[in-house]
Automatic annotation (TrEMBL):
One of its GO terms (molecular function) is coproporphyrinogen oxidase activity. This is Heme chaperone HemW. SMART domains: Elp3. Pfam families: HemN_C, Radical_SAM. GO terms for biological process: porphyrin-containing compound biosynthetic process. InterPro entries: Coproporphyrinogen-III_oxidase, Elp3/MiaA/NifB-like_rSAM, HemN_C, HemW-like, rSAM, rSAM_horseshoe, rSAM_sf. Its main location: cytoplasm. The keyword Iron-sulfur applies. It comes from Corynebacterium pyruviciproducens ATCC BAA-1742. Residues 1-240 form the Radical SAM core domain.
């Protein structure tokens, strides 16, 4: 059974206007040292808990994903230290996928060589766009070319698996901006591309500008057109879609994220991280100081948790699996949803392949709505 480990790094150098993640502007290097110490303590506590329950595979975790925030703020040696802590506690299974996210402006050729030498196998870089005016709206400080250079540096350092993250449908962006961003990303030789439409969370600064009419809110038609541009260019370059927003060359799929989408277990370590093990899901203390205080007192830093009912798990499974190219086994869907499946097959939004059903190209744009309909969720 695959078992994933997510590690949350809750610090960034600046706070971007659209961001709603659990991340804080780094005040001092002391904060990083406190964080690393607390994280290592949580890994010890987590290992003891999982081993006592017989839930940790004997050979260790099969995927690790260091996300944030800005993991690269720790530098190559800081990330290597985290991996060493995992090796001493949960253990890392042979052939495990080990990813870190990185912000292009906090990376260098040396950074990539260091983390590659210490066992990272995959890098995921925030790119967003090559259009300077789009990056400005998003408050991103990197120059348009920096993310592309960072991807090339990662490839040159020996990483086979490199992802660039794009955001489309930012206010003020044009079709050409999206086209150019995808083309430039693909020209670097990466094997994975993620493209999400901009979701402006309520608490984000950008939301206030849109609400006050200072920036336009892109329509659903615009979002659909932009998605098609991304998808067409990615497929032409040999990156097939395997999840609605994710494209990869064969073998380049992100196994850690596949674990989430297939409802496999994972432990989330770090402030505000979420975990899902057995039928239980929980979230850690979000504030780094509170998180550190709890773990240094020898407690798991759980802030809230819930036990998922069979119905909750069924709803999640349908919602997540219908976003995957591999789709869902039709017999997993309850009788109540079968007529809806037939209706969407007739409408060309779902396709049947053997005992599975998956969204068509047009259906991809409506995957969440189709799943909700099958589940009778308003
Ligand atoms: S760098 Fe990423 S995580 Fe940090 S504030 Fe910006 S969008 Fe959020």
């Amino acid at each position: 059974m695959a078992f994933g480990l997510y590690i949350h790094v809750p610090y960034c150098t600046v706070r971007c206007g659209y961001c709603d993640f659990n991340t804080y502007v780094l005040g001092s290097s002391d904060a990083l040292a406190t964080y690393q110490e607390a994280l290592e303590r949580e890994l010890e506590l987590a290992t003891a808990r999982l081993e006592a329950q017989g839930l940790l595979p004997d050979d260790g975790v099969s995927t690790i994903f260091v996300g944030g925030g800005t993991p690269s703020i720790l530098g190559g040696e800081g990330l290597a230290q985290i991996l060493a802590a995992v090796r001493h506690t949960m253990k890392i299974a042979p052939g495990a996928e080990v990813t870190t996210e990185a912000n292009p402006e906090t990376t260098s050729p040396e950074f990539f060589s260091t983390i590659r030498a210490h066992g990272f196998t995959r890098v995921s870089l925030g790119m967003q766009s090559v259009a300077p005016h789009v990056l400005r709206v998003l408050d991103r400080r990197h120059t348009p070319g920096r993310s592309l250079d960072a991807a090339r540096e990662a490839l040159e350092a020996g990483f086979e698996h490199v992802n660039l993250d794009l955001i489309y449908a930012t206010p003020g962006e044009t079709d050409d901006d999206v086209r150019r961003s995808v083309e430039c990303a693909l020209e670097t030789g990466i094997d994975h591309l993620s493209a999400y439409s901009l979701i402006v969370e309520e608490g984000a600064a950008l939301n206030r500008k849109i609400a006050h009419g200072e920036l336009p809110r892109p329509s659903e038609e615009v979002m659909a057109d932009r998605y098609e541009i991304v998808s067409d260019l990615a497929e032409q370059a040999g990156l097939h879609w395997y999840e609605v927003s994710n494209f990869a060359k064969p073998g380049g799929e992100c196994l850690h994220n596949m674990g989430y989408w297939r409802s496999e277990p994972w432990w989330g370590a770090g402030p505000g991280a979420h975990s899902f093990v057995g039928k239980r899901r929980w979230m850690n203390e979000k504030l780094p100081v509170r998180y550190a205080a709890r773990v240094s007192a020898g407690e798991l830093p759980v802030k809230s948790d819930e036990v998922l009912s069979d119905e909750d798990r069924y709803v999640e499974e349908v919602m997540l699996r219908l976003r995957l190219a591999e789709g869902i086994r039709r017999d997993v869907v309850k009788e109540s949803g079968q007529a809806q499946i037939d209706r969407y097959v007739d409408a060309g939004l779902l396709e049947v392949e053997g005992d599975r059903v998956h969204v068509s190209m047009e259906g991809r744009l409506h995957a969440d709505g189709i799943a909700a309909d099958i589940l009778f969720i308003d």
